[in-house]
Amino acid sequence: MFDIERWEEIFDTIRKNKLRTFLTGVSVASGIFILVILLALGQGMQNGISKEFEQDASNRVSVWSGVTSVEYKGLNPGRFIQMKNEDFDFIKTKFENDLEYKSSVNRIWSGLASYKKENGSYRIEGVYPDYQFIENASMTAGRFLNIEDHRNIEKVAVIGYRVQQDLFKKENPIGKIVKLSGINFKVVGVYTDPGGEREENRVFIPLSTSQRVYNGSNVIRNMGFTMQPQNTFEETLAQSKVFSEELEKILKERHTVAPQDTSAINVFNTLTEVKRFFDLITMIKLFFWVVGICTIIAGVVGVSNIMLIIVKERTREIGIRKAIGAQPWSIIAMILHEAIFVTAIAGFTGLLFGAGLLELVGPNIEVDYIVNPSVNFNVALTTVFILIFAGALAGFFPARRAAKIKPIVALRDE
Hints:
The chain is an alpha+beta fold. Helices cover 54% and strands 19% of the residues.
């Protein structure tokens, strides 16, 4: 039941001790504020990591070759390992049931592309049609390469959005002829990529065409695969790990590379990296929770100390109340009421300040690995209610002490 006299007592106590109450409230509010900001940073880091891995298919396995670093079977270190079409065909056939998308790549670095008076240097990549899905590319105009383009060694090209802006400006590029290192190609599509301009600074052509017209013979620079999705992330991750290990082992055997050589054959498993990063994020979030909760505990301890001081200051008043018949529970309720009020007001203030700051600033924050830091409001609100409960607990012990004071002892208090 609402007791106006009880509220008048609380506000009268607060007015008499403005600075003390303010500092106590600040310690509690800052605890919630810091926790909200830390949780938001943790979520922002998770958003940033997720965005980084959105650039390619989430279950991608890539392999590229390098230079041998150790002697093996009479072969000196320093050999460059050159993968070929036969390597890709062997892998594709052996793991046919496990693979979803697959493509080898013949890359031409810094290829010159020109259209009318415009020209620029871009990366030209000969690929299979599946590469669109491995790269997570989306078509904005026209189509991607198809298997007939590859079989017929067609001189067709799919350009990135950045290339379109540079060469064609506002002109529709579909059906136009663009020169790639002096050879005419017909533009059949324009794509965008979640990776942004860096990934849209490329031109895709059929793999067979790139090998034929740019003297690539049967040479490939790297290979990309995605695995068939499984029922759970753990199953997909396990399958991906097995495939990565087998892929590396097979290529090392085919090219006479020492099993312990770590530089000749390089395999990058996106799922493994995703798990590693998210495990790290989980640990960081846990650390943030510990720091935030410790800060809140410090505030709650402050509330408890203030309640002890209040009980000490009001000992004589409490004695008079008990002498005229006040029950112990009413003394406890009086102290708890004030502790809960101060904790609740300070807690909600810290929550609103933290949420408001994130609402204003969060969407504009986009640095490396931190994107749009935000906090689950329900989690933050639950934390405030837990804080209020902790504040009540902090006030209970001083309140119980006050309720146990004998009236005659309290009346003698100076």
